[in-house]
Amino acid sequence: MGTRGAITRLTKDGFEGRYHHWDSNPSGLGEQLFKLYHGHFKENLDAMLEELIDKHPAGWSTICCRDFNLKAGYIEASNQKRNEKTGEYVYTKNPKLTNRPLCYCHGDRKEKTWLVTQKNASDSGVEWVYAFNVQNKTMQILASYNEDNTKMIGMFGCGNPNATWKIIKIVELDGKEPDWKYIENNVREESHKTYENIKKKEIAKFLSNTKEAFSHVGKSGLGIGDMAYAHYLMWYLQDVKEHLFYDTKMEIAKRISELTLKNPIWEDRETNYIKDFPELEPYSSTKQISGLQLCAVLEGIVKDLQGGSQ
Ligand SMILES: [Zn+2]
Predict the structure, then answer these.
(1) DSSP for 172-220?
(2) Where are the domains of the chain?
(3) Distance 215 CA to ligand 1 centre (A)
């Protein structure tokens, strides 16, 4: 999985080091760094950081599950061949190097120096940073957060330039190995809770805003007694609801509310509003959406959101 990260040293201004592209979450890169320190680099942190930061200035595709007894370098897909028996890929130029750590500056790639810093990291989609303190023999695990306090997720080389970095854990390199999955899941769960709370607040605000529009429709005496209205309400609840994101639902409801405040659209069974509601169009078999139907959708959305978050 392309989870972006960085291997860095702590500096006066934060951290500074190299990009790491694949599996940079604690249970991937975090664990591998701890294992390399105790294994291949035999507790020599200076030697380890020299190799991981100074000698590979363009950064890493991945160091996870790679053999540091081999010379690091990139392997282009065109220089790989599949072993038909085992299914494993083999580096055609030098099969002995197949399991080498993959950097962007040696082997088949010669990319430029790229210094990842606390200032530029989140903008390029970096989600996890491992920042080493050479004196104290510690590794800080940092995670990037959005302004609303949810975990930043990087995509296609882009992140949130305004994200802030929080220290998730300080690992004593000579101490007990932490539970990497636990650290990772904790961050995910906390962020999910924060997101749920934001959503709840938004829905509460939305419901109080639509109250007025809804009471107009309510006063008109529509309801389950009206066959067409009941039919439309079922249509929303059964065929539409599950396909829409909650913010799309609120957006649709807002537009319907505005219409109801201008005109008694619940009395309108003629006008076709489908062009104004392209989000609903894929679910309408008749390609016809009347004012009455919109009011049923509004009730459906309110019911749906009152029932909790999706
Ligand atoms: Zn390199």
Answers:
(1) ETTSPPP-HHHHHHHHHHHHHHHHHHHHHHHHHHHHHHHHHHHHHHHHT
(2) 5-178, 193-306
(3) 66
